Amino acid sequence: MTLDFNSLTEEVLAGDRYFLARLLSLIENDDPKGLEALSLLYPHSGKAHLIGITGAPGTGKSTLVNRLAGYLRNNIAVPDVEGKNKPVTIAIVAVDPSSPFTGGAILGDRIRMRDLTGDPGVFIRSMASRGALGGLAKATSSVVEVLDAAGFDFILIETVGAGQAEVEIARTAHTTVVICAPGLGDDVQAIKAGILEIADILVVNKFDIPGADNTLRVLQSAISMGYPDVHIPHSENIPEEDTQKWIPPILSTIATTGDGIANLTDAIERHRHFLTTSGEKVRREREYMRSRMEQLLGDQLVTRFLNERLDDRFELALDKVLTRELEPRRAVQLIIENKLL
Questions:
Q1: 45-278 architecture in CATH?
Q2: 278: exposed, middle or buried (Cβ count in 10 Å: 0-12, 13-18, 19+)
Q3: Model confidence, pTM
């Protein structure tokens, strides 16, 4: 069945999951029809709460996302059009490592989310990172905007387990949850890499295995150094709602059993309230959109320049660089100034 982008937009807004999946595929592939539909859907976005789940490989991110989504569905309600409470709806964007052979998502995350299969209130989309830096696929922002416009209350974004490179998630999500686990060496590495700076909530998962207490203490020490005026005596200490700045709480979970998921949900809800009442949400969204528009502008300018102005100059410059006649930066400068001979 072939639809124009206007009809595709109407079907997505009406809640049709088949056409939602089709539109997301078009957007991932930079199809013009998908981008036109996105333009029509964009005014309907801005209502969902975006939760980023990130951390090093082996910390149990996918299992935790599975548990968190189930808990949100069963315990959080929002009013429907008639004012009656209904369970929240959830979209999950699982950014998988790309297959080295096909460039497609390996889909390991989806295998670990079988508990959610068949739930009409949960939509799962796996995306290939395709080598994108920062742990996010290039089209993730657009995919999230479509899911937001489609009416999902929460969007969980699980990023590639690349550890130290996942700072980009903090720009995209409203609430960033950084997962650590004992025995992986990621506690000290995370501190060195500055990944704690992006955390709104810190979680020590797999708290039932040896070394968990030590990981907890390392994180407590790191937070105490970052916020010297705040005493953090306990791993589940949540900031007061009237605090001028948000102090990331440190929680413990066992995702395989669901232990600690209720506390994590409570922390997410408190952070959402903090963002709204403090004005931080508006500030973050402006900074994120500024960064995104600058990146998109840069991409468009480079593409236009390469397509319209280069002719054979790029290949000529490349040859000179390879023969060591020109240094790469100098070659690019000469191309831009149209002085390449």
A1: 3-Layer(aba) Sandwich (3.40)
A2: middle
A3: 0.84
